Amino acid sequence: MKLFPFLRPILEIVAAVCAIVFGLRFITSFFSRASPVYRPTFLRQFYLLFWPLLSMSVGLPFLISFLYLGPVSAYELVLLVALGAVIMGFSVPALVLHAQYYARNLHTTLVFDARQNRLEIYEGRVLIPFARRDLVRVEYVTCRSKRMFWSNYNFLRLHLTTGEVLTLTSLLTNLAPVAEFLRNSNLESRQQWFCFV
């Protein structure tokens, strides 16, 4: 297997970088207070992508190894296709949702502090001005299943009186407190199997 010696140094480097990042994050958390500013950060993305990427990193090398074996029997081929379907079935929807949310909220900044009654949304560095009275309705879409790799992906849509629609995704933060904050603004909660924006 020529592929494995090539992957091992890369995986070791990735593990070392992740250990350093989490170690620094853990140490600095003692000296900082919680910030009301939310952006798509590395740690938030890592939290959302951990299980899909782990599934693919464990399953795909195993599947690729069958390419080096040569001809396989029908029984092995059925098992190979079933395993590939399971790995892709669990991982691909989460990766598609993540890519969609990343494209939607890459330049979005959410400033949210319920204690100070503060909710601001910035696109780039530009503040999008609105108040609670400007909200026609708020859609909060969550995943129907709580045990899938894509269960943590959800979004809020804020429909403004101007006709503009602002979308906040779980790539920014856990949206449940924001939805609770907006519960008196015509909040409509829905559940879907896949929370495509």
From TrEMBL:
Q: Which InterPro entries match?
A: PH_40
Where would I find the PH domain in this sequence? Answer: 37-180
* Entry keyword annotation includes Transmembrane helix: yes
Q: Where are the transmembrane segments?
A: 6-27, 48-69, 75-97
Provide this UniProt record's keywords sorted from A to Z. Membrane, Transmembrane, Transmembrane helix
Keyword flag Secreted: no
The molecule here is called PH domain-containing protein
Organism taxonomic ancestry:
Bacteria, Pseudomonadati, Bacteroidota, Cytophagia, Cytophagales
